[in-house]
Specification:
Blueprint (H helix, E strand, L loop, with lengths): L8 E5 L10 H4 L4 E15 L5 E17 L4 H8 L14 E8 L5 E9 L2 H6 L3 E2 L18
Antiparallel strand pairs: 1-3, 2-3, 2-6, 4-5
Protein name: Gamma-glutamylcyclotransferase
Pfam family, one: GGACT
Length: about 150
């Protein structure tokens, strides 16, 4: 995933980094080349802290595929998600992994980075399964997804 606009860095977001949510303006506004409603395969949970967690699973998780010209954005997103690639996985809140992302018609959009949480940690934190695969804060914009 390189720096050129012809090959932007892609990140799938499903929580506070979505357009209209609390962290979008600070971390993404003015840096995003393109935002597209998208889905990934996993499980989505609401955590009692005002943000969600995605785990490995077999359900649809709805969010946005954000494209960035500058790969340095990952340093900022890693800090927000409390992920450090140099420490043991179990010491991170989230882990950044590459996974396949799809448009809303289930056509592959290729690989993108996504921050996932271990299901054991989700359970320990009191995560509540969101079977519809969508999360939105009470104050964020409820972006529409066309199915």
């Amino acid at each position: 995933m390189e720096k050129a606009e012809s090959n932007p860095l892609k990140v799938f977001v499903y929580g506070t980094l979505k357009p209209g949510e609390i962290n979008y303006d600070h971390y993404c506004q003015g840096r995003v080349l393109h935002a597209q409603a998208a889905i990934m395969i996993g499980q989505l949970y609401d955590l009692p802290f005002g943000y969600p967690a995605m785990t490995v699973g077999n359900s649809l998780v709805y969010g946005f595929l954000l494209s960035f010209a500058d790969p340095a954005i990952l340093t900022h997103l890693d800090q927000l998600e409390e992920y450090d690639p140099n420490r043991p996985t179990e010491q991170n809140e989230y882990v950044r992994v590459a996974a396949e992302v799809f448009d809303l018609n289930h056509r592959s959009l290729g690989q993108a980075w996504v921050y996932q949480m271990d299901k054991t940690l989700v359970n320990k934190l009191g995560g509540i399964l969101l079977p519809q695969g969508r999360w939105g804060s009470p104050t964020g914009s409820q972006a529409e997804y066309r199915l």
